[in-house]
Write a structure and sequence with these properties.
Two copies of one chain form a homodimer. The first copy, chain A, has about 400 residues and is α/β, with parallel strands linked by helices. Chain A contains 15 helices and 14 strands. Chain A has two domains: about 140 residues, Aspartate Aminotransferase, domain 1; about 220 residues, Type I PLP-dependent aspartate aminotransferase-like (Major domain) (Aspartate Aminotransferase, domain 2), CATH 3.40.640. In chain A, a hairpin with a 7-residue loop joins strand 10 and strand 11. Chains A and B meet through helix 1, helix 2, helix 3, helix 4 and helix 6 of A and helix 1, helix 2, helix 3, helix 4 and helix 6 of B.
Chain lengths: ~400, ~400
C-alpha cells in the first residue's frame, strides 16, 4: 500500500534521541543526552533581552526572514567568527536550524546514493544518521588521542571512490572527548589540499574549554587552512545559548553557500526569526562572554565530579579519557563486554548512558560507553557513576 | 573541484524567496510575499504570554525537545484539529519547522528519483521546489473553479507510473484562490481510495475565510475521507500566529508519522522548543479565536480594497477571481502576454508581484500574475494595483 522511498530503508534512528524520547522516568539518572542542565540556561539574560526589544524587532521576529538568516545575526556571527580568526574572505555564512541542519544541507548538496563520506570512528551519531539517510557509503577512520590516524586515512583514501567530503569534529570530540593536536590538524589539511577534498568541520564545543590556556589548542582547521581548501565550518548556539533556539551556522566558500541556501529554501524556508532576533541581541548586548565564563566553570566542576567518581567506583580494567572541555567522558571496557548488557543492568538500577555502537559508523563495536556530565544536577553525578560502575562490574 | 549531487542540479530557486531576498527597496509596493503585514502580528498577546511563563516553561523552551514536538503543543494541536472534525484515531501528529518541512519530510520518505508526484497546475511554488529537489517527476492537473479537473486527473493517472502521492491545497488555493467544491472533494477521494493513493493535503489558509458562512465549505478531505485512506494533512501556524515562529504540523496515519519522525531526526532534531512553548500558550490561554476574528476582518478589508482597485484600474481583457479568504488574487492576462515583461515594467514603476510560471509545475505558462493583499499597508494597495494595471496596459 504505502510505498516508502529507498532513503527510508537506509535511515537509522539516533540511539540518543530514542533514549531521550523514551527514558522520561524522572528518577532515572541520565548521562545520555548531550544537553545542558536546565539551571545553566541564560534565562535572566533573555528576560532582559525580551524587555529591551522594540516593537519593530518583535515584528521582525514574527515574520519570515531571508533564507540565509536574519541579516543582523549573520553580521554578529561573522564578527564573532572573525574575532576567533576564522577567514571571511571568499566565504559566506548561512544560519541553519541547528548545526544538524548544516550537516543535512551538506549531505543534500553533495551526496548521491553510494557516494562516500569519510568520517571518524567513533563519530557523532547525529551526523552518521544524516549521512545514512542520504544513502552514503560511510567509511570511518579510527581515532587516537591526537585525531584521525593518518595511516588509516591514507589507506582508506587510496581504496575509496567518489569521496564527497571528510567529516570531523576536532575539538572536544563527541563521543571520544579528544582534541586534535596541531600537528595532526596540519598533516590532515595537507592531505586534503593535495587531493582537493572538501572538509566538513563540525565545532559545536569550541568555546567549552575548561582552562583558558586551552583556548589556543582549539584553533579550527578552517583557520589554519589555505584559502583554496574548500573547508565548510559549522558551529552552533545550542551549547552556548540554548538548543531549543535551534540556531546553527555554516561558514563556507561562497559557491557552496549558494547551493546550501538553495537547499535550505526547500527545507524550512528560513530558521525561526523569533529566536534569531533573541540570539542576535545576546551577541550585540555583550551577554555571550560573561555567560561563557560561567558555563566553563560549571562544566569543569561537573567533569571533576564525574572523574572523581569514575576513579572511585570503576573496576580496574576500565579506561577513560580526561576531557579538557566539552560534555563527555568516553569509557572503554574490556573488548568482550557488550555495552547493551551493561545498559540493561544500569537502567534497572536507575542510570542510563549511550552505548558505543551508536557512534560506530558501521553500528557494530560496542565495548565503549559515553557518559555526558552536562545534563544531570551535580548532586546526582557521583551516584549515577556508581550505578554504571556496578553495572559494568556485574557484566565483567 | 567541488562535485555537487544530482539533487542540486534539479533544484529550482523559489521565485518568491528570490524576490524577498532581493527586493528590499523600502519604497517598492510588494504584492509578492504571502506574508502578513507586520501590524497584524499578535505582539501584545505574546508579550502577555512571555510574562506568564514560569521558569520551568522557559527552561523547557531553551532545551532540546522530542523530535515529534513539545508534548503539550502536540496535545493542543490535536484538540484543535479534533474540534475542527479531523480524525485522530489511527493517526498521529508531528510538529514540523513550518509546513514546508512537512512537505519536505513527505518527499524524503516517499520520493526516489523519477517517482511521480501529481500536483495541481498551478501549484504552491514552495512545494514544487521541494518535489524537484528530490528529483520527482512532477505532473500537474489543471484546476477549474471547483478544484482539479477530474477528466485530466484520470487521464494523467492512467498513463503515469509510480505515483507516490497526490498533492493539493483545497482551501483558498495559493495562487489560484479557489476553494474545492464538496462534490469535487468527494469525487477526488473516491478516485484516491480506488487506487489506494496517498494524499498530501496542504491547508495553511483554512482559518482565513472572510465570511463565517464559508467555514463549512473548507472541510478538509482528511475529515471527509474514510479511515483507510492514507491522507496526510499538513497545516501551519504561519498565517494564524507568525511565520517567524516556524511551526507547522503533519497529521497522518501512524505508520507514516513513524517514518516522518525518523526523517525529521536527521533534519533538525526538533523544531524550536522556545517558539513551541509560546505557541502552546497561545492555544491554551484562548488567544487564538479572538485573534482569528481580528485577522479575518483585516484580510477581508484588504481583499476588498484590492478588488475595488482591480475593478477601477485593470484593462478590459484582464480577468481575476474574487477570493473568499486567504491571501491571493490570481490575475489572468491575455495568453500572448509574458508576465516577466509586465514585472519588469511594474518594478520600474515601483510595484512587484510573482509571475505565473513560478506556480507552473513545468515552469512555463506565464500569462498569470499573483497579487498578495496580505502584506502591504492598506494605504498602498490601491496605488500598487494601479501601477501593476498600468504595466499590463503598456505590455498589451
Amino acid at each position: 500500500m504505502v510505498d516508502f522511498s529507498a532513503s527510508v530503508k537506509a535511515m537509522r534512528s539516533s540511539a540518543i534521541r530514542e533514549l531521550l524520547n523514551t527514558a522520561v522516568r524522572p528518577d532515572i539518572i541520565s548521562f545520555a543526552g548531550g544537553m545542558p542542565n536546565p539551571s545553566l540556561f541564560p534565562i535572566d539574560e533573555v528576560d532582559e533581552i525580551y524587555r529591551s526589544l522594540t516593537v519593530e524587532q518583535k515584528q521582525t521576529g514574527f515574520q519570515y526572514g531571508p533564507t540565509g538568516g536574519y541579516p543582523p545575526l549573520v553580521e554578529a556571527i561573522k564578527a564573532y567568527l572573525q574575532k576567533k580568526g576564522l577567514p571571511l574572505e571568499g566565504n559566506e555564512v548561512i544560519i541553519t536550524t541547528g548545526s544538524l541542519q548544516a550537516i543535512n544541507i551538506m549531505s543534500k548538496i553533495f551526496i548521491d546514493p553510494g557516494d562516500t563520506v569519510i568520517c571518524e570512528d567513533p563519530s557523532f551519531t547525529g551526523a552518521v544518521t544524516v549521512f545514512l539517510s542520504y544513502q552514503a557509503n560511510l567509511v570511518g577512520v579510527p581515532l587516537d588521542a591526537d585525531g584521525m590516524i593518518l595511516d588509516d586515512f591514507d589507506r582508506i583514501l587510496d581504496k575509496t571512490q567518489k569521496v564527497k567530503f571528510v567529516y570531523i569534529t576536532p575539538n572536544f570530540h563527541n563521543p571520544a572527548g579528544i582534541i586534535y593536536s596541531r600537528e595532526r590538524r596540519l598533516a590532515l589539511l595537507q592531505r586534503l589540499q593535495a587531493k582537493d577534498l572538501v572538509l566538513l568541520e563540525d565545532d559545536p564545543y569550541n568555546e567549552l574549554y575548561f582552562d583558558p590556556a586551552d583556548c589556543a589548542v582549539t584553533t579550527p582547521l578552517k583557520t589554519l587552512g589555505k584559502e583554496q581548501t574548500p573547508i565548510c565550518y559549522t558551529g552552533s548556539l545550542s551549547k552556548i545559548f540554548g538548543p531549543g533556539m535551534r540556531i546553527g551556522y555554516l561558514l563556507a566558500p561562497k559557491e557552496i553557500i549558494n547551493k546550501a541556501e538553495l537547499a535550505k529554501q526547500s527545507m524550512d524556508a528560513c530558521t525561526s526569526t523569533f529566536t534569531q532576533v533573541l540570539a542576535c541581541e545576546f551577541f550585540r548586548q555583550g551577554k555571550l562572554e560573561p555567560y561563557l565564563n560561567r558555563l566553563r566553570q560549571a562544566y569543569k566542576h561537573r567533569a571533576d565530579i564525574m572523574l572523581a567518581a569514575l576513579q572511585q567506583h570503576m573496576p580496574a580494567d576500565v579506561r577513560w579519557n580526561t576531557p579538557k572541555g566539552g560534555f563527555y567522558v568516553w569509557v572503554e571496557m574490556p573488548e568482550h563486554i557488550d555495552a547493551n548488557q551493561v545498559l540493561k543492568t544500569s537502567l534497572a538500577k536507575g542510570a542510563i548512558f549511550v552505548v558505543g555502537k551508536a557512534f560506530d559508523p558501521l553500528g557494530q563495536r560496542n565495548h565503549f560507553i559515553r557518559l555526558s556530565f552536562s545534563h544531570m544536577p551535580e548532586a546526582k553525578i557521583s551516584r549515577g557513576v556508581e550505578i554504571v560502575a556496578q553495572a559494568i562490574g556485574e557484566t565483567l
